[in-house]
Design a protein that fits this description.
This protein is α+β, with helices and mostly antiparallel strands. The chain folds into 4 domains: 49 residues, no CATH class; 229 residues, Dipeptide-binding Protein, Domain 3 (Dipeptide-binding Protein, domain 3, Roll); 177 residues, D-Maltodextrin-Binding Protein, domain 2 (3-Layer(aba) Sandwich), CATH 3.40.190; 170 residues, no CATH class. The chain is 21% helix and 25% strand.
């Protein structure tokens, strides 16, 4: 993937603007006039004339601390005021061990990377109230809500989706906040707005924001919590750290945890990060989701597994005796099928029918599923870790995980490939101070071999130009993508019709190196306006119907019709390299009401109700009772996906 050319302009800390604003931050967009205290003095016959200078400075949106959530004690108070066991009980009343899914960091307690932080937030209204008192938010006599010394009420906007699941637990959260004197104004927004590319979360348009991160087998976290991943107007909203939380030590730890192959070192760095995450409380972890999926009693091959976010990974094998169409119920509709910018669960699930799932993480183990011969690993020699010679002027990734240019005389801490620390093959590593004269650094290369006979659903073969186009669009800031971590750390790519290789910058050795593989878009595809897809500028892609609404892929199905708000229809891809799927047609039916979805499952109108729709309330008890009678199947799957409430540290 090619390096991004995005540039963030920073004012020097010694400038007038920095002194006025009190910090060195990206400065762009709206201007304000500031009368400074800089005074120019001249002497005229022993008379001093003072002149006041007017200085124009620029002010960046979302760098002003939030008057409420910018205060640590308020965030900590909210954590203490939240009765999380009660929140869990509101949606998982049928779950016996509710404490097992309560979270206190960003990592599930059963995960190998979890370390219990010293700072804990047990439910304690008195403690929460004391923190609010100390922060200046007092509860007046007879008042229901707190206010500051100026009479401003302690009120916060709470934004989340309209899914019944979140409406249920959000009501408990609202009541908890009221008990502590905090007014919560709930906004249950459409998923298309909340997860849209230019709205909601993507533009930090919230104060308290609740949603779930779809968990992966690896904890990751760099794009969510690193200081340089805070989305701002000046950086094109790049990054997913929508809280605006910047703790340099935590940022360094999360980067270090994602830039080593040594499991013990990763555990150490994640432990450091979790301590600071808990202490700063940028986001209140609530609980791990328990995914409950329900299907027709005779549906074969449906097999949701822990660690695998999308159960459609093997949808080509799903079948019911005598049925040529399967109906899948979703309560939310995708805003777009351009998943580079649309990351909602429903969009990824629908897209998986068209594009397939190339890599799975069943039971937290990664494996090639479609298209690839195997994952390139150090063990099978598909990935190589070599000691690369570097010199002044070379771009490398330093020991903190940042891209830097080597320069003589500058103390740059890097990972050296001739040391005596963790051993990978014949390479020993240690950290050194680079001051010039060249060095050796570890460099990772991955080579991917694709299956033969891969064709687009229109019959055209997959070619190198398709893979190169995907790299170009993925790494173009104007495409709408939000994370360029790999793009910015790629040294070289080589494209072939059935092969692809990528060399990462020296010093960048991410633990999930074996998943940094190729993507593809149909460069040959002719659009309705006569252009080929390869010739369309990246900035236009989000609005292309051929990308957002009717993409073609290599997967088991093609989209044939999309009736907005009603359904999406898919037919078997006649050119799927594995042959015809076992079921000819798939229909995704938009059923916003969970009770209706369950009722239609029980009457046979739909064949699958996913966890996104089913939630975890009374409807689960209904399908569980039906499953006990043998009328349907129900699947309870522990999940790495987790619910949380993010605090926006800044205002516009």
């Amino acid at each position: 993937m090619k390096s991004s050319n995005r540039i963030s302009i920073l004012l020097a800390c010694t400038t007038v603007a920095a002194l006025v604003l009190g910090a060195c931050q990206p400065q762009i967009v709206e201007k304000e006039v500031v009368v400074t205290q800089i005074v120019e003095k001249t002497v005229e016959k022993e008379k001093i004339v003072e002149k006041e200078k007017i200085v124009e400075v620029t002010k960046e949106a979302f760098t002003t601390p939030h008057p409420i959530l910018g205060e640590l004690m308020v965030r900590q108070a909210i954590a203490h005021c939240t009765n999380r066991p009660e929140v869990i009980a509101s949606v998982y009343g049928w779950l016996d061990d509710k404490a097992a899914i309560l979270m206190d960091t960003n990592i599930p307690t059963s995960h190998w990377a979890y370390t219990k932080p010293k700072v804990q937030y047990a439910f304690d209204v008195a403690k929460g109230g004391a923190l609010l008192d100390e922060a200046g938010w007092k509860l007046g006599e007879g008042a229901s809500y707190r206010a500051d010394a100026d009479g401003n009420e302690l009120a916060l906007r709470f934004t989340t989706t309209s899914a019944q699941f979140r409406q249920t637990w959000a009501a408990v959260f609202e009541a908890d906040m009221k008990a502590c004197g905090i007014r919560v104004v709930r906004l249950h927004a459409p998923a298309s707005w909340w997860f849209g590319d230019t709205t909601g979360l993507a533009r930090r348009d919230y104060e308290l924001g609740a949603f779930a991160w779809v968990g992966d087998a690896d904890p990751g976290g760099q794009s969510l919590y690193a200081c340089d991943k805070i989305p701002l107007p000046s950086n094109g909203w790049e990054g997913q750290n929508g809280m605006g939380w910047c703790n340099e030590a935590a940022s360094n730890a999360i980067k270090a945890a994602n830039n080593t192959l040594d499991r013990a070192e990763r555990v150490k760095q994640y432990a450091l990060f979790q301590e600071m995450f808990a202490a700063d409380m940028p986001s209140l972890p609530m609980f791990n989701r328990v995914e409950v999926n329900a299907t027709a009693k005779d549906l074969a091959a449906f097999d949701p597994r822990p660690g695998q976010p999308y159960p459609t990974y093997n949808i080509a094998d799903w079948e019911r005796p005598g049925e040529t169409t399967l109906v899948l119920a979703l309560s939310q509709e995708p805003a777009s099928l351009f998943t580079l910018v649309e990351n909602a669960f429903v969009a990824s699930l629908a897209s998986s029918l068209i594009n397939g799932v190339g890599i799975t993480s069943l039971d937290y183990d990664f494996a090639a599923n479609l298209y690839f011969k195997e994952l390139p690993t150090l063990e099978n020699k598909g990935a190589l870790l070599v000691a690369a010679d570097v010199k002044d002027g070379d771009k490398v990734v330093n020991a903190k995980g940042d891209v830097v240019e080597l320069k003589s005389g500058e103390m740059i801490r890097v990972v050296d490939a001739a040391g005596d620390l963790p051993l990978y093959g014949d390479i020993k590593l240690k950290e050194i101070e680079y001051t010039g004269g060249g060095a050796k650094m570890p460099q990772m290369t991955m080579s991917w071999t694709l299956e033969s006979g891969l064709k687009w659903s229109d019959g055209n073969p997959l070619v190198a130009a398709d893979i190169e186009l995907a790299s170009k669009i993925t790494c173009d800031p104007e495409s709408g993508a939000t994370d360029f971590t790999v793009c910015e750390r790629t040294a070289k790519e080589t494209f072939g019709d059935t092969a692809y290789s990528i060399a990462l910058m020296p010093g960048y050795t991410p633990p999930l190196y074996f998943s940094i593989g190729p993507g593809w878009y149909p460069a040959h595809r002719k659009l309705s306006d006569g252009r080929k897809l390869a010739d369309v500028p990246a900035k236009e892609w989000t609005t292309l119907p051929e990308i957002a609404e009717s993409p073609i892929g290599l997967g088991p199905y093609t989209i044939t019709k999309w009736e907005k708000g009603v359904s999406m229809s898919f037919a078997a891809n006649p050119n799927f390299y594995k042959g015809k799927p076992k079921t000819s047609n798939i229909t995704i039916k938009i059923v916003q009401d969970t009770n209706q979805a369950v009722a239609q499952l029980l009457t046979g109108e739909v064949d699958v109700v996913f966890g996104e729709t089913l939630g975890a309330g009374e409807e689960v008890a209904t399908v569980k009772a039906a499953a006990d009678k043998g009328d349907v199947k129900v699947f309870f799957t522990p999940s790495a996906t987790w619910e949380h409430v993010d605090f926006n540290f800044n205002t516009k």
